[in-house]
Design goal:
Blueprint lengths: L11 H7 L4 E5 L18 E4 L5 H10 L1 H5 L2 E2 L22 H12 L10 H14 L1 H9 L7
Parallel strand pairs: 1-2, 1-3
Length: 149
Amino acid sequence: MLITETLAEGSPWYNLLADPGWQTEILFPGTGVPVVGAAVELARPRRLVLLDGTWRKARKLLHLNPLLQRLPKVALPEGLQSRYRLRKAPQPGALSTLEAGVEALQRIEPATDFSPLLKPFEALIDGQIQAMGQARYQANYQRVAQKPT
């Protein structure tokens, strides 16, 4: 995990992401971006970059870093539903970074069940709802989003 706004050319992280020995992709939606999926016999190991932050911040990170702009983009399919019941998503299908990562992993390695990675996330959400009280949750969030089944 790297916490930064810019990648300086020649820095260790820059070199890591630019390493031609890896197939590095960035998970970021866009027009004409292919849906992430299982790779068919790659000659190089695969690396997936996820940007964490608000959509505005993620677009800024991409804009500030030419290296990230040059990475091949992959996206998630439309129509996914977030489990993050306390977040007002900017558009339908917007997932948290954790949810997006788990969904991408599931598509890259469909034989592996990655859903246990979401259990702490769901416990966090349930704890937040419990702390705010059911009445406040229902008044402010429940009409906005329903928990997926």
